[in-house]
Amino acid sequence: MNRFLLPLSIFIVVVVFLGIGLKLNPREIPSPLVGKAAPDFSQPQLFEPTKVFAPADMKGKVWLLNFWASWCSGCKTEHPVLMDLAKSGYVPIYGMDYKDQRDEAMTWLSRWGNPYPIVGVDDAGRVGINYGVYGVPETYVIDKQGVIRYKQIGPLDPDTVEKKIVPLVKQLEAQ
Amino acid sequence: MIPEIGHFALILALCVAVVQGILPIYGAAVGNSALMAVAKPAARGQFLLVLTAFGCLAYAFADRDFSVLYVAATSNSQLPLHYRLAAIWGAHEGSLLLWTLILTIWMFAVTLFSAHLPESTRSRILGVMGLVSIGFLLFMLTVSNPFERLIPAAAEGRDLNPLLQDPGMVIHPPMLYMGYVGFSVAFAFAIAALLGGNLDAAWARWSRPWTTVAWCFLTVGIAMGSGWAYYELGWGGWWFWDPVENASFMPWLAGTALVHSLAVTDKRGGFKVWTVLLAIMAFSLSLLGTFLVRSGVLTSVHAFATDPKRGMFILVFLAIVIGGSLALYAWRAPRVGLGGSFASVSREGMLLANNVLLVAAMGSVLLGTLYPLFLDALDLGKISVGPPYFDSVFVPLMAPAIFLMGIGPLAQWKKASVPDLAKRLRWAFGVSVVTAITLPIVMGNWTPLLSLGLLLAIWILTTGVVSLRERLAHVAGNNLMERLASVPRSYWGMQVAHCGIAVFIVGVTMVKGFETEKDVRMNVGETATIGDYMFRFDGAQDVVGPNYTAARGSFAVSRDGRETTLLYPEKRRYTAQNQIMTEAAIDPGLLRDLYVSLGEPLDDGAWSVRLYHKPFVDWIWGGCFIMAFGGVIAISDRRYRIAWRRQEPAVPAPTRAARRKVA
User: Fold this and answer.
1) Whether residue B497 has pLDDT greater than 90
2) In this structure, what DSSP letter does residue B100 have?
3) B228-261 exposure pattern, b = at least 16 Cβ within 10 A, e = fewer
4) Cβ atoms within 10 A of the Cβ of B535, count?
5) Which of A73, B322, B523, B654 is least surrounded, with the fewest CB atoms within 10 Å of its CB?
6) Predicted pLDDT of residue B593
7) What dihedral do alpha carbons B147, B16, B114, B186 form, nearest 10°?
8) Could you tell me how far CA B267 lies from the centroid of its own chain?
9) pLDDT tens for residues B65-100?
10) Contact pairs from chain A to chain B, CB under 8 Å
11) What is the 3-state secondary structure (H, E, C) of B576-612?
12) What does the alpha-carbon distance between residue B497 and residue B15 come to, in Å, rounded to a whole number?
């Protein structure tokens, strides 16, 4: 009798794992940068090219760094979520315009709305390399000491913002 | 209006499926032939209803009805008609509808070719298929309705994924699904036999042609998918051990084992339990493949849209169908009995070894596919399992299986003698070994894998020749032609399919051993040499397609100063979603493919270009088609034709007439 039950038992184990697997996100890739200091940079700003944008200016603040581009369709999906988050005032979102044309980026922001107080320009993608950007959009949560606390690969959605980003920001603010 | 008709047809089909899944099985259990008689008209009715739904969706696509969400999401008014129709199975909802349609096509086929089956068996088979169909129809109607409206209608559709805008992709999914779903017939036969408790040789004989047909479709489907990846993805690879590919390969391995195991059950009455298990396995793996592809538990380059709610539905469905049938197996199989005994060296023994190896290979592919998921579920980190694992596990398992493939057809049933086999096969073995060692040296690149590959391929061919010679010596006939004609087609089918494997192995071995590739920057007028071929880049021009704009490079290829061919690879930008696609240009040949794909534009009209010289690469797909052709020959064997011609009514005519009057 036992050997006839074997296929069923193997199958039950597989089903349990598949069930757990459904709750996991295979696209969630842990970043080696989480828990490390955010790489430094000093990039020209999108709207005022003579000024620079550098993480050093953010010391003492909890902030989000969002890599985006006008050519990226995921960024358009994510955009309303960023607008809502910016409006809520929980946390400032700083943009990094990744491998983009300056005029197209500005047109994009004026057309759809600008959630960012400052947008840096990373036209060569160097900053992206230092941050280990897989693809845009990507968003980093950086704490008061300038340490990366969380990385989102792909578009933010309202659920992630509500359940992960906002609680994390609140906790970091309290520190 | 039309989409609503389609939706309604699906709801009706679900009702019919429920009736078909319950009444005939119950009728067979209690011996009520009125209930059993429901199966046939129900299956046909269901087929017509699903066909109607499919037709409605096709109409919505042809009509560019962007008020249907699915149409708006997967097509575009600029998309040519044939791709708009192929877009029906371009994404999740439509694929499911195609799946269900094909399931009902198989059901319909069962109603046509089952007149020689006992009525209880036929009603159980159709009942089981009805139960499977309930799952898919419910899935569509609850969480993936292809007829969902988009109000207000979109002005323009989002377009079909440009990767899928390709003739290969038009035929690949239907072929693959014909194979996947075709195993549902063998599965239904097995479940029906378990329910009825009559697992005999007749059961195996009925299942065999169905299984072989499904196997042929699956073989062709996989080959076309692989061919598509080769020319459409633009990196010249033909198999990536990607989860989606593995999902189609696992049922193929189980199906191949099933085809062989059925032969033993049919001829010798052995392996019954094992055959039933393989039939359950082949279809379960098809369902599991659907789950893996559709639920998004694994990431894949094929990147389909994913939704956890759908994943949950399929998982529950899987648990019920597979869990239920394995439980039934555990309950009923112990009573089946083992069939005739056989010595370990015998044709049965070799087929068993071959089956075990195939199933082990299938298990290792399954393990490799699910391993990242297992680790992640146990919180042990994220990994991905790639080609190194699969190559190093798969080759050692398949090599002995292929070696046995040469001996098996020559061994006697029940008991064979090793010295006798060795004597009959010694020259085949000698020729194979000598050729396998010397040929690569002559070609100037000796590696162990190259030799192994050639050894196996030549072994299959030489043992095939030995087997054919012995066979001809034993059949009646005055001259060679008569003797050739009196060899049964099932034997020819086997030999042809085995030769297909040899051709396939030659392709794989030669490509791995001798392919060359080059990544170069080419200015206009510049040349690059690869193999014996010189490529001259004559610049790139802008061209406009129906729904894309492209840069088309032109390359003049010459060999020894003589012009061989002109190649025009393209870099397309599909306008609807602004997606970039690389369209490789290939000059195919029996002995080699030349393959050019455009990389990125550089300054002054120069491009980065990727060039490949791929010897024997077309043999890979050629081998698969030969295998499938072997299957086709096998099912054209006389005994199946006789079985179909002699359609004796299962219930004597008077009773039938009487029943009709009662109804």
Assistant:
1) yes
2) H
3) bbbbbbbebebbbbbbbbbbbbbbbbbbbbbbbb
4) 23
5) B654
6) 92
7) 60
8) 26
9) 999 999 998 888 888 999 999 999 888 889 899 999
10) 70
11) CCCEEEEECEEECCCCEEEEEEEEEECHHHCEEEEEE
12) 42
Block residue for tokens 């006992």: B118
A116-120 CB contacts, 8 Å cutoff, 24+ apart: A116/A66, A116/A86, A117/A92, A117/A93, A118/A45, A118/A53, A118/A94, A119/A45, A119/A46, A119/A47, A119/A53, A119/A94, A119/A95, A120/A41, A120/A43, A120/A44, A120/A45, A120/A46, A120/A53, A120/A94, A120/A95, A120/A96
Chain A contact present for B577, CB below 8 A: yes
Instruction: Inform me whether the pLDDT recorded for B659 exceeds 50.
Output: no
Tokens representing residue B52 in the block: 């109607």
What distances in angstroms separate CA B88 from CA B48, B54, B91, B238, B314, one per listed residue? Answer: 18, 9, 7, 25, 21
Q: What is the pLDDT of residues B229-250, one digit of tens each?
A: 888 877 778 888 888 888 999 9
Residue B476 contacts residue B575 (beta carbons within 8 Å): no
What gap in Å lies between CA B262 and CA B420, rounded to an integer? 27
Burial class (CB in 10 A: 0-12, 13-18, 19+), B374: middle
Q: What is the DSSP string of B103-134?
A: HHHHHHHHHHS-TTS-HHHHHHHHHHHHHHHH
The residue assigned the tokens 């006939």 is: B477
Q: Would you say B490 and B641 are in contact if contact means Cβ atoms under 8 Å apart?
A: no
Domains and CATH numbers, chain A: 35-174 (3.40.30.10)
> Which of A9, A11, A28, A75 best tests the B interface by mutation, with the highest count of B CBs <10 A?
A11
Q: Least CA distance to A8: which residue of chain B?
A: B326
Rounded Cα distance, B71 and B157, in Å: 7
The DSSP H or E segment spanning B559 is strand B548-559
Mean pLDDT over B124-139 rounds to 95
The two tokens of residue A120 are 């840096």
Residues 6+ apart with CB under 8 A from A6: none
pLDDT at B338: 66
Which residues in chain A have their CB less than 8 angstroms from residue B372's CB?
Answer: 26
**Rounded to whole angstroms, how far apart are CA atoms A32 and B382?**
12
Q: Cβ B297–A73 below 8 Å, yes or no? A: no
Between CA B489 and CA A25 the distance in angstroms is 51
| Phi, psi dihedrals of residue B327, rounded to the nearest 5° | -65, -45
Residue-level pLDDT at B305: 43
Residue B350 vs residues B279, B315, B354, B403: alpha-carbon distances, Å:
20, 36, 6, 10
Provide the Cα torsion B427, B433, B436, B441; round to 10°: -120
With CB atoms and an 8 Å threshold, state whether B319 touches A15: yes
Point out the least confidently predicted range of B294-308, B395-409, B464-478.
B294-308
d(CA B514, CA B529): 15
Distance from CA of B286 to the nearest CA of A (A): 14
Inter-chain residue contact B326 with A20, CB threshold 8 Å: no
Buried b (16+ CB within 10 A) or exposed e, B97-121: bbbbbbbbbbbbbbbebbebbbbbb
Name the stretches of chain A with pLDDT < 50: none
- Radius of gyration for the alpha carbons in chain A, expressed in angstroms and rounded: 20
Residue with tokens 């990431």: B299
Q: How far is CA B465 from the centre of its chain?
A: 28
B581-613 residue pLDDT tens: 888 999 999 999 999 998 888 888 889 898 999
A39: tokens are 């790489």
Write phi, then psi, for B331 (nearest 5 degrees). Answer: -80, -45
pLDDT at res. B147: 94
Phi, psi at B262, each rounded to 5°: -60, -35
